[in-house]
Amino acid sequence: MTSIDTARHFQPQGTSSDICRDHNRAVLAPAVALEALRQGWGPDLTDEQLDQCAARAERNPLSDTSRAAVRAALEPALCETDSAEAVHERLFTLPPGHPLRIRLGDQEHFLVPVPITL
């Protein structure tokens, strides 16, 4: 379970629905991806397996966009040995609400792109 609040509790009143959906997807995807990793599944898991992971993570059924965000989070982790070009490509081409898996030493983390309203 994640400790990042949903958009309703985090974003200011009047925030656009697109930003709120991206925020909530960014929170949901790592929780479901973690369940997939615990099962030993990667980005090629089936929709049925994704649904099982969502249920284990106590999340609602996933939209196609959320399924894509979970699969993105399951891509192999970026690490310090990856080229600058590879890091740039993965980091700066992420669709909104799609987390990025990284490896720092012997630990893996999700970078969670929570949108902000200024």
Task: Describe the SSE topology.
Blueprint lengths: L6 H4 L6 H22 L8 H10 L7 H10 L10 H9 L7 E5 L2 E5 L7
Antiparallel strand pairs: 1-2
Helix pairs in contact: 2-3, 2-4
Shape: globular
**Spans of at least 5 consecutive residues with low confidence:** none
Name the average pLDDT: 91
- Alpha-beta classification: mainly alpha
Number of strands: 2
Structure description:
The protein is mainly α. Helices cover 47% and strands 8% of the residues. The chain has 5 helices and 2 strands. A two-stranded antiparallel ribbon has the order 1-2. A hairpin with a 2-residue loop joins β1 and β2.
What distinguishing features does this structure have?
two-stranded antiparallel sheet; 8% strand; globular
Outline of the structure:
With 118 residues, the protein is mostly helical. It is built from five helices and two strands, in the order αααααββ. It has a two-stranded antiparallel sheet with strand order 1-2.
